[in-house]
Amino acid sequence: MLDRSKAPEVKTRRSIRFPVVQQFVLDNGIPVYAVNLGTQDVVKLEVVYWAGRPFESQKVVARATASQVKEGSKRISGEAFSEKIDALGATLNIPFNLDTADFNLFSLGRYFDQILPVFAEVLIEPVFPEEELRAFIDRNSHKLKVELSKTDVLAYRQVTERIFGADHPYGYNSFPKDYEALERSYLVDHHRNFYHAGNMLIFISGRVNDSHLKLLNREFGQLSVSPKSSFPELIRGGSGGGAERLDVPGSVQSSIRIGRPLFGRKHPDYVGVYVLNTILGGYFGSRLMENIREDKGYTYNVYSLLDVMHGDGCLYIGADVAHPKVVPTIREIIFEMERLKQDLVDEEELGMVKNYLMGTFLSMLDGPFNVHDTLRTMIVEDLSVSFFENMVEQVAAISAEDIRELAQKYLNVESMWEVVAGVFP
């Protein structure tokens, strides 16, 4: 008989297998990664170009180009394209990524043959209408002016600029004048130089069949191929650490951001720091949460985050607090970092964090679109599928001693930038 008065034993998984991914090459060499796991007649198509910030010749031109592609081609207007998308029940998302330009199309499988040709056309032959570019500039200039009055935005911009440098693709900050300086020719040049078959990756997931792959080959596989753009060598302009205060008159709270440069997923310490960050402030039961929110009540939300890109990465801690709580909050953040450097994490806490992360890994493989997103991250960062499985095994095997050693290596206050935006006496 099952005894329902006793909770089932919790066991930590030590391995998770990544689903089978099909890889194809179109006639012209464009790689296609297919995740055929769908049960519903839905397909997600993602076209990725190496055309983000590291490839810019002008500030914000990468973002502007990606945004304006959908505004029409030589044969279909932006309005007609939008109506076609809506009529077929499809959705187009253009998320902002620092390294790449990404276009996500969600479509019913049975309409894929109707939507793909017009989608391919706007990607390949956009016209960048002048009036739409002017509207984009006006919207983003106005939006940015509003954002620059917010303490959290100002603190984040300043800490990333200090970590990477004011001229670094990951560190530079845009201003309204950067949008106002845009010209249509900049977008045309950026598209011509980087939106080509040699710079493309294609991911497709859901209920994928052979006809979808043949359609991809018809629309993209016949394009002429230029050499792939080499990813530029990125040199940090930031150095050391320090403290800065940004006065924001009239703000109702202060925003704290404490961060340092780190590395990408290829670094041998990445997985260990991923676990360390989770313990520090990477989930709701983290030490920062328990101390600063639950115990002290200084803030509604405090967190630490690993921000990883293709060419670099950083770690930063964030919290928004009432002005008088800035100093006590920073003191507690430093206290928690020092505690991780001095004391071993106990077995119960480490076990809980491992179980939490195993649940996170399982959710990353829950359904074709989550698998798609996980796969895309690995491929774009030049990682194999085995990286995921190895990461699971490393998390399961990490020890308290490993955590303390990594904390001593990377949680040093003297190497961090401390930025506070708010009102100061």
Describe the structure.
The protein folds into two domains: 22-220, 2-Layer Sandwich (Cytochrome Bc1 Complex, Chain A, domain 1), CATH 3.30.830.10; 242-422, Cytochrome Bc1 Complex, Chain A, domain 1 (2-Layer Sandwich), CATH 3.30.830. A hairpin with a 7-residue loop joins strand 4 and strand 5 (101-108). The protein has 425 residues and is an alpha+beta fold. Helices cover 43% and strands 17% of the residues. The strands form two sheets. A six-stranded mixed β-sheet has the order 1-2-6-3-5-4, sandwiched between helices. The chain has a five-stranded mixed β-sheet with strand order 7-11-8-10-9, with helices on both faces. The longest helix has 18 residues, at 130-147. It is globular. It is built from 15 helices and eleven strands.
Strand content: 15-25%
Major sheet: 6 strands, mixed
Work out the helix count.
15
| Share of residues in helices | 40-55%
The pLDDT mean sits at 95
What's the architecture of the largest domain in CATH terms?
A: 2-Layer Sandwich
- The secondary-structure element order is EEEHHEEHHHHHEHEEHHEEHHHHHE
Cα Rg = 24 Å
Question: Number of domains in the coordinates?
Answer: 2
Shape: globular
Instruction: Record the strand order, biggest sheet.
Output: 1-2-6-3-5-4
Span between termini: 67 Å
CATH topology of the largest domain: Cytochrome Bc1 Complex, Chain A, domain 1
